[in-house]
Design brief:
The protein contains 13 helices and no strands. It is mainly α. The protein has a single domain, classed as Orthogonal Bundle (ABC transporter involved in vitamin B12 uptake, BtuC). The longest helix is centred in the N-terminal third of the chain and has 26 residues. It is globular, with a radius of gyration of 19 Å.
């Protein structure tokens, strides 16, 4: 088999075509918003979000509605409760995220137990793009487009609040409300990956391509397209590798995404002066990174 045949032949079947579109949807959408999650140090939030989504998915399965609906509902619920605790009750952000995320995860585990099918938990956590339906793919594509457009539209405001939150507040930016909105968008990303790579692997696609892109391209506005490209490469490459070697798709995609970080680190290492720390690097101005 030629290299071209190795790439093209798997996509002759309809289920692989659906899997390709599904993986590309999360591979593009996750890094698009992941750049902001990494820059705002919200990686812990994305991990907590993956646990919280489980509660909504389990509830949806129990009442017989779409898992996507349940996942979105859980994400919105977590965003609202975290915002309430942080803004109104003045609970530290990391504490609020930890309490709400782990609480919803515990509820989700109980819900999955009530389903009586342990395979349901595995499907939610690790996904299976080979089983997605045309309807699920359509929903994923629409949500991915909404996520990318939202990230692009909110880019200037997110940039200001990320690098100088005090200035952002003085010019009228409601940083707390913006963080709540970012939580909602992150929950949408996790839901997009729900039936394809799984919620745990979606978190990897949120963070790894964004980290790799920031290592290669210092300017945030330039790193976003690169992050989306790296996410797409990991998604398509992982799908092909899993097909040819009979490996689980979600974890394979995650491994490739993490490998991109390692390659980016190796590629940029010669340009880092020995003994130089991130704090000692000439940064110019904070907004120069945008």
């Amino acid at each position: 088999m030629t290299p071209v045949e190795l790439i093209i032949d798997p996509f002759q079947t309809s289920f692989m075509q659906r899997a390709l579109i599904s993986c590309l949807a999360v591979g593009i959408a996750a890094p698009a918003i992941g750049v902001w999650a990494v820059s705002r140090r919200l990686v812990y939030l994305t991990d907590a979000m993956s646990h919280a989504i489980l509660a909504g998915v389990a509830a949806a399965a129990l009442v017989g509605v779409s898992l996507v609906v349940g996942g979105i509902a859980a994400g919105l619920f977590m965003a609202l409760i975290v915002a309430l605790l942080v803004i109104r009750v003045k609970v530290p952000e990391d504490s609020a995220i930890g309490v709400v995320g782990q609480g919803l995860f515990a509820v989700g585990v109980i819900g999955v137990g009530l389903l009586g099918d342990p395979r349901a938990l595995s499907h939610v956590l690790f996904g299976n793009p080979l089983t997605v339906t045309a309807g699920e793919v359509a929903v994923q594509v629409v949500m991915a487009v909404v996520i990318v457009i939202t990230g692009w539209f909110l880019g200037p405001v997110l940039g200001i609040s990320t690098f100088d939150s005090t200035h952002a507040r003085t010019v009228g930016v409601r940083v707390g409300l913006l963080d709540t909105g970012l939580i909602v968008v992150l929950s949408m990303v996790v839901v997009v990956g729900l039936t394809s790579v799984g919620v745990l692997m979606a978190i990897t696609l949120i963070t790894a391509p964004a980290v790799a892109a920031r290592l290669v391209v210092p300017r945030l506005s330039h790193s976003m397209p690169l992050a989306c490209a790296l996410g797409s490469v990991a998604a398509v490459g992982g799908l092909l590798v899993s097909y040819h070697f009979s490996l689980p798709t979600g974890p394979t995609i995650a491994v490739l995404a993490v490998s991109e970080v390692a390659l980016a680190a190796l590629a940029t290492r010669p340009w880092v002066h020995r003994g130089e720390s991130s704090a000692a690097r000439p940064a110019g101005s904070a907004m120069s990174a945008v």
